[in-house]
Structure formats: C-alpha cells, structure tokens
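Posting for a labmate who doesn't have an account.
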Amino acid sequence: MIINFGDVQIPSLTIAEQLRQEGEKLGEQRGIEKGKAESARTIARQLLANGVDRAIVKMSTGLSDAEINALMD
C-alpha cells in the first residue's frame, strides 16, 4: 500500500511486514552476539594453548571463570 502526501508517495507496511522486519533485525542481532561469543571462546582456547595466564585470558576475552573452565574440559 502507498500513502500519498501531495507529490510524495510513502510506502505503508502492513503489520505482518513490520513484524517480519523486526524479527529480521532481532535475528541479525542475535547472530552477531553468537558470533562474538564464539570468537571470544576461540581466542581464549588459543591463548590457553599457548600458556597465557587464565587471568589475562579472562580479562582479554570477557569470559567468566566457568566459561574458561568449560573450554578446558
């Protein structure tokens, strides 16, 4: 549907289209967050494998002690 304002035409989204767009944005944000978390775990594994102190790994990656312990199992 298109709404006319004089010479300007603005597309109007249906409720379903608006919800779909919101869902896409939310899904994209979640994907980005998952990617960042996986990247932090990968970096932590590499640092630990190279003998870097756990405190430095924790500070550098933002992972918790429990998350670092899980990587070592």
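Reply:
Got it, the structure tokens are right above this. The longest strand covers residues 2-5.
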